[in-house]
Amino acid sequence: MANLPAHASPKLAPHPTPPTTRPEGLFADDASQSSSTAAGEQTPALPESLLSPAFTPPATPGGTLNLDLNPTQILHHNQAANLEHPGEHAKAPKLLQQLPKVECIVRARIPTTNGAEMFLHLYLNDMDNKEHLAIVFGNNIRSRSLDRVRPGETEMDRMIRGAYVGKLHPGRVSSWVDDAKPESQSTSQNVEPPLVRIHSECYTGETAWSARCDCGEQLDEAARLMSFPVEDLASDAPPEAQSLRSQSAGGVIIYLRQEGRGIGLGEKLKAYNLQDLGSDTVEANLLLRHPADARSYGLATAMLMDLGCGADVNPEGVRLLTNNPDKVRAIEGPNREVLVKERVPMVPLAWRTGGERGIKSSEIEGYLRTKISKMGHMIQ
Ligand SMILES: Nc1nc2c(ncn2[C@@H]2O[C@H](COP(=O)(O)OP(=O)(O)OP(=O)(O)O)[C@@H](O)[C@H]2O)c(=O)[nH]1
């Protein structure tokens, strides 16, 4: 016990680090983007180019509708405005001219309920105060910012923040050498380009069992495709999964905290009420004076680069699991920092199984119909 570092002492309380606080020194080299607050704290200023439409929701607590007009009039009004100013409510995500800075501050192994293991990576960035995540399957994908040596840190510090190779076990002392299993690192020869999914947060679909959308199903399916080699796939696995080789390079789900296509949960719930009043998903957003899609993907591009999936070290590119054509271009970044070699479609389970499995609801049919007819999704 005498050799343990001070922070291993049970007498010491854990560091009081609120989850969204950036560690001291993070992005410190970016003095040009910082501004001082009255309290003297350094707060990175947001360059104009990084502002996504998600930063400008209407600040009208209690309702955003113009109550002088009824919803149908507002919809017509918005549609007319759209024609006058094309692009104002465009569904296409805003392409950032400059990528945000990201840093992975902690990673941990998560054994999952289906038997596969993944590594959850938590990121901070200089664009918002949210904890965006990367869910990494396989041993070949590592975060460069996590692995970087921090001044003054001990081996225990490194292992606690997840910057180790191999596996942790009681008594391990080196973050660099897994003495229990020296050759545990898998080779990366003959591997397919990694599967990537850029997933936007959906509390209702992923946690609250909502059958209005297929977000929960898509998250599960992405994890399943990245977890197992093709030999272990179920007999009803979709054709696209059959092309995955057992030498899979693993995969990454970038989990972005842009709930409700970037408008936030509260506004999405209002949109649900408008949908029950007869609007489709796009119309409901417009009625609430939001863009049809308020997301941006610069953070995802930056996180993929940090994970070694960028064109600088991975000229083979990635295979992107999506039906959304706008995402492909957006993920590639302003200067094609990430190459999308292939788009892998995500066909709803109900369509693949003739309705035997998957989501059954009248709402999901309208949701998918609107995605195809108004948002250009290619569900095939
Ligand atoms: N505003 C709004 N957002 C929704 C609604 N239903 C789901 N979402 C959000 O939509 C996001 C998922 O995006 P989708 O448009 O379903 O799919 P996508 O990410 O564009 O495309 P895929 O990669 O093919 O899944 C999540 O953030 C959900 O919270 C809705 O009715 N209104």
UniProtKB/TrEMBL annotation:
Catalytic activity of the protein: GTP + 4 H2O = 2,5-diamino-6-hydroxy-4-(5-phosphoribosylamino)-pyrimidine + formate + 2 phosphate + 3 H(+)
Annotated pathway: Cofactor biosynthesis; riboflavin biosynthesis
Keyword annotations from UniProtKB, A to Z: GTP-binding, Hydrolase, Nucleotide-binding, Riboflavin biosynthesis
Enzyme class of the recorded protein, top EC level: hydrolase
Keyword Nucleotide-binding: yes
Pfam family name, one: GTP_cyclohydro2
Disordered as annotated region, ranges: 1-69
GO molecular function: GTP binding; GTP cyclohydrolase II activity
EC numbers, comma separated: 3.5.4.25
InterPro entries named among the record's database cross-references: GTP_cyclohydro_II, RibA, RibA-like_sf
Ranges of residues in domain GTP cyclohydrolase II: 190-344
Residue spans of biased composition, Low complexity class: 28-39
Gene Ontology terms describing biological process: riboflavin biosynthetic process
PANTHER family on file: GTP CYCLOHYDROLASE II-RELATED, GTP CYCLOHYDROLASE-2
The family this protein is said to belong to: Belongs to the GTP cyclohydrolase II family.
Official protein name in the record: GTP cyclohydrolase II
